[in-house]
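pasting for ref. prot 1 ->
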Amino acid sequence: MSETENDKVELVRLTNLGNLALENIVNMDKKYEVNAKQKRQQMAKLWGGEKELDYFKSVFSWYHPPAKPSILTDSIAITREEGEYFINHLCSHTKIKVNETQAEALRGYEEKGLTKTTSMKDLPYSLFDTIRDDFEFNPLKEVHGVTVELTGLCNAKCLHCYRGGSNGSEPGLPADEIKKALAPMIMAGIKHICFTGGEPTLRRKALLEIIEWAGNYMALKEVPLEEKLAYRYGTPNPTVEDILKTSRYVEMRQELMRQLKMSRDELIAGDWNICNENTEKDVDNLVRNNAKSSLEYAMKSDTYRIDGISVLSNGSFENPEQFIDELQRYGNVDMQCSVDSFNGHRLNKNRGIKGLFGKLKELVKVAKKKKFEIYLTGHNIGGAKTRREEQNSRFFEHSVPTKVLEGMINIGSAAKANFPSRHNRETPSTFGELSHLKSDKDGWCDGFTEPGTIIIRPTGVVGNCLQSYATPEQFGSLRVQTMAQIVNNIQNTRVYKMFKDGRIERYQHEIDISLFPEKFSRSCEPVIITLAYGVTKERLMEQGMKEEEAQKTANEDVARKYGYQKEGEQK
């Protein structure tokens, strides 16, 4: 084959988005169990139908073992073995033409951002190493959801707001633009969307419109409990005896009987606490008790994975009964609220909303009555000191799932609000001590290279961390790119490379600590401050500023944006 002919041979490869989609499709049965059918049908609507989704899986499934090997080149479908021969010898007789319907499907995948076409001559190394790396180094590998900052506007004036309060310059993207951005992520199989702000209920109409739209493509309608039980145990009304007949428990008993012949000294990590000191009756009791617990767990409706949507609100919206009724129409939608004190007067003052504490209590009562899920997060609650506070504490904790977080993110309004910080480690995080060799809580967050969530900001900027709003560049902007283009290009962004090549670790030593606190309860603040500093400094130097001046300017700029220094204030 001549060089000219070789130049025309192209390989169709999966993008970041395509790899995420394939991973979720291949593992759908495992992830969703009985809900897999519903999930597949909903997703397929964005693919153009189940046939297109099936063909995508059949063509690219070898990317994710143990599926059958096959690869695609432009109008060529070849097995892996044929592919190796084709690449090594460029023999034309290995070509197998795809039909027009399949070719059209392939073109559609590229238009959706799931695939990209690469000339064979441009591949830097082995074809199969290239494909393996596409999957192994996919920054979307851990993504399970999208968080939408619906607006920067807020009706509260929280003393601890990490964003520094309501932002009138960020009203939020139009609903249609948000849907367009969410579509490729839902098509790729994400299972959770979270709406926050600002206060998302200030855009109540847009919020409900987007949730209703998303419900057309996500598995929000949970299947009946009887169907779940039938899927798992073969009957909609299982008994302990039914569970004992399943392969899991048959094998468990066989393993325990084998272990029964062993002495206690022969037991190893992972063994049950059964040995020759026990009897067959002990084995039967252990297996039966385990099966009984398994049945009790299975009877809970929240034990089966399914898609979900969350609304993060301060709880100050009007007509809570009506709003909850509206949300419940769409299926698996919940709400998350937060408190910073069980003292009503203190919370109202901290939040700047008169009567907010009472509204939260009323919201919780309505939700409990309507069996609507509300989750409560506590920040710096501290101990309940008065009798009234103890009563309030018991009310919330007995009414809704309540989780107390450690400390407050000390940026924005909280930077100088002097809220107590709960240091749960002997050595708090500080600049100069972070290392990639340490865990996320003490080192560099891997969210900028392997994010679990993609963030859509009111400005259209796409990133992965709500607190990194002062970073000039993140993954991209929906104002100039599509969501597919943004997520498929994460490896080439400045923030990604800054973490990968170690620049951010060096930049922490350039932080002017006179502008920032010396200690933090965790590494979040030092990480996002250093990132914002590094990006700002590099951009200033690219504009021609000398390094020493760029360092000083970047430090002061970040200090102002994160609330540690006021506009015009000098060090």
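and prot 2 ->
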Amino acid sequence: MLEELEEELVSNCREVLLICGGRQVNGDEWRDSMLGLTVVKGRRYMGCVVRGVKPELEDASTDACIVYRGTTVRVANVSRVQVLEQDEEATIVKHGDYVYVYPTQLIKEIEEEYIKPIMKGGVPLNPGLLLIGPPGTGKTSMLEILADSVGFSRVEVTADQVLSKYVGESEQRLRKIIDDAFEREPSIIIVDDVEWLMVSREFAEGRELWRYSMFQVLTSGVDRIEREHRAVLIAAATNVNTDVIDIALRRYGRFSPKIVPPPTSTMLVKWITHAAQHVPWIRELAGKVGLDKLREFVAQAAYGGNSMSEVEAALRKWLLEGKPKPLTSPTSGFRRVFMPKPIDNDVTACIRNTIGAIADKAGKVILRPVINITQGAEALLEALLANSLTMLKQVALVPTDSMKVRETLTMAKLLGASVIVNEWSIIERYPVDVLEAPVPVFIVTTVPHPYASSLPVINLFPCTTPTKTMQIQDALQTLVRVAAEYYGVHTDERKPIRLGAEVSDAIHLVKLAQLMRNMRFPDVNAAVSRLKEAA
């Protein structure tokens, strides 16, 4: 392949010097790793890019030819990035020695807006990419995958590299890093936890004035990319509320914000299936405990709202300690609510219509199963909400940390999700944020509280359809199945549940749902028996 290139373009040269991925590539590496070469004059293809004369090549022999900018070699299949599976929901990617999972919609958006324009020799729609999401969702890994997939040199920026106690030195360091990225074109500047650099000018007051000057250096670099039509991309990741990021950077033509949410149960099950084949330590764990157990474990972790990093840490502990530990406290500040297999019949359709009417208007309501239930219905109501919102193709977030409520509300807004509040303390800390948020808020804790007087109360039963009105006693079988499905308790769809006198009204149903949430049962009948014993 190298010989073909020499004959076509540089027949008078004994060797061709290439700079690829920020370093010189020799002919042996070409033959070993590259499946196809196409030399294109006047265009910049970015599979593996040949750049102009570099200082380290100045001593090259007179018999060596350098491929200059404007004449580029495209290399097929040289990237370390491999797509293992892709469907409408999940894209599984192998990068180096590890396997990642991301939402397919997010991957396709990045392909259309960044990768395809770059591969065609153009520039992205925006010179900047901003990934937003809770910790541990793989944002930084995605930036590295993006760089390798298009053959960019990586220039990583951290606060430690840039920030200095001396006036003006931080700005000089940042400017030098950006200039270096332009010299190493094509390149991607990766900035993790970017809030230290992209903070809004509203916060640049007093001793924080240095932030504004840093902001100016960054915006100057972004504008230079667009103005000079350079193959440089600035990609950043953050965990914070987007309102903290300066609006001038979030606008079109600079940084395009993309959301990286926690994985769903389906995504994690697909991920573990591939990881057990390609990641040695996960393959070892699967060999010891069985892949089915790992699938069940990661699915339950997803229902709890755990991030990829939390799931991975729990799996490593399982391998080291020989037994799994349940994931109950995600660090993201919220957990996701999602029904793996929604139950759809007349009863759930009636509830769904009630919930949907509230969600459509981003309403704020206190939810009760019936009028006479004043407390203790959180477990039942969460299950019913999970079923309804999943049928409506929505997710919901339950805040787990009252200190991170604003981040939860921001994520709900970005995901188009609802928020389920099960503690009044969450509203007490940020009443304006919660009650005026542009997202639906369902309050399922029914303990009396001063804020309750200002909010509407919605009773799910009696539930009215165009043809009939159902009382809660008419719906017990369905409601028990919904709670059982949500809390992972087995039911046989072909057989009616033997509720008997133990579950005869709303109060008993609420207690049964609490039991299924708090205790693990092999099936519903065991839970009903436990309810009878407790009575």
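The chain has 21 helices and 21 strands.
Residues 1-23, 27-79, 200-210 have pLDDT under 50 and may be disordered.
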